Each structure stands twice: as C-alpha cells, then as structure tokens.
Amino acid sequence: MTDSILYTRDGALARLTFNRPASLNAMGFEMGKRWRDLAHEITADDTVGAVLLDAAGPAFCAGGDVVEMATSGAAGADVTAAAHRIHDGIRTFIESDKPVVAAVQGPVAGGGLGLMLTADYIVAAERAKFVSKYANIGLTPDLGVSTLLPAAIGQTRALRLLLQDETIDAQTALDWGLVTELADDPAARAAEVAGFWLENATAAFGQAKRLIRAGARRAFAENLDDEARTIGARFDTPESKARVAAFAAASRRSTKE
Q1: Spacing of C-alpha 41 from chain mean position
Q2: Cα separation of 222 and 247, whole Å?
Q3: pLDDT tens digits along 128-182
Q4: How far apart are CA 88 and CA 74, in angstroms?
Q5: How is residue 27 annotated by DSSP?
Q6: To 5 degrees, how large is the angle CA 200–CA 202–CA 206?
Q7: Please, are residues 20 and 205 in contact by the beta-carbon 8 Å criterion?
Q8: Which of 37, 68, 98, 195 is the most buried (most CB within 10 A)?
Q9: What is the DSSP string of 147-211?
Q10: pLDDT digit string (tens) for 47-90?
C-alpha cells in the first residue's frame, strides 16, 4: 500500500509529502496515525534541522476525509479519537524546535488550514485557494483551526471564513497574513527557505520559532524567563561564540573606519 505521507531526507532536511492526491490529500484514519508517528519521529531526531511540508497532486489538503468517515461506519467516538491523534502530531511539530516550511501548491480546505498552519513559514502558489466548508457539512473546526486560524489572521477574519461560505484567493491570503509569501514554484521556494535555515544558525532559528509559538499560550513573565534562559544557553554554544566574536570584530573595524 502506498504511504499516505511520504517521508524523505536530504541531509538535515526532513520532507513530508501528503500523498493521497486522488482524495485531495484528505486526512483519513490511517493517514492521521502516520502524521502523528512521523511528527514524534522527526522532532526527536537530533539530525533533523528543518522540516518541509508539501503535497502531491492538485490540492494541498482538503481537511479530514469526510467520505471515509461516512462510509466506514465510524461513530463520533472514532472521529474524536482520530482528531486527537492528528492534534498530537500538530502539537508536537508546533512545540518543537524544528522550523517548518510549507509549500502550498493548490486548494486548502477545512482541517487542511490547521495542518498548513502547523508550518512556521508558508509559501503558496498564486492558484491556491482557501476555504472553511465545515458548516456546509454540519461539522465544526478541528485540527487546530479554532486556535491557529485566528492567531494568523485575527478573530474577525477567522469568523468570517468559518461563518460564511467564502473562498479567498492567494493574494487575499497573503494580505491577511494566512500565508507568508507567494511564489511561482512554491516547492522550490520552500526548499530555499529551508536551505537558508540549514546553512546558517539552524538551532537559533529553531529556538526563535519555539519561543514565538510558546509565547502565544503563556503568561508574559513566563515568556521573559524563557527568553532569558534560551539566549544565555545559546550564548554558551561554540557556534554562537564564534558568530558573536565575528560580529564584534566587524563592528570594531567599521567604527575605526
């Protein structure tokens, strides 16, 4: 059986590819388990410096596999259990110190929005479209959408998407802050973004991501304490010492000039 999510490595870059193009990469029960398992495997691997998330076929992700839900005999308890597994993977990636970039080549719907927003940097194609569709089938947000979507675009716009049958285009998504940038070839551009992280102070980028993500759910004082501990720990690393020394030397030279 073909893997529902492909996992490949290119040095320190881990690449996850949603691989159910015939189902618009909708997240089915088996795919949800694989998502969770790969999230734990990748974030626990010290040889992984960055993660690239993309998808096969014309769509990025249509959310949960509603067809499978309807035809498998699943009950609400089964859907809840599946959501918990997928949520575990989302939380694991978001709370990790691995920066994640997503290449969004086509439409994103429902829970696909939450999976996309697992990424810290999102590159979308001009042809990409974004829609909720939850209420159209009598369901409610899952896969982090009720939290990640308003964090990205604000509560008013999130409610607009969730409470209306509205599709926004890629330019609107960029203007709203749903995606980071647009590109003719989002996969190639996402690889460039990941390459930049890996060629520079990878661990510092990862810790910056972790601090931003954690800061949204904690008290300000706790965030300040974490910032202080993290910058002190980074300062003691050989990489940071070398970079700080080089910066200081360059600053002294420019001052003399």
Answers
A1: 16
A2: 30
A3: 999 999 999 999 999 999 999 999 999 999 999 999 999 999 999 999 999 999 9
A4: 20
A5: B
A6: 140
A7: no
A8: 98
A9: HHHHHHH-HHHHHHHHHS--EEEHHHHHHHTSSSEE-SSHHHHHHHHHHHHHHS-HHHHHHHHHH
A10: 999 999 999 999 999 999 999 988 998 899 999 999 999 999 99
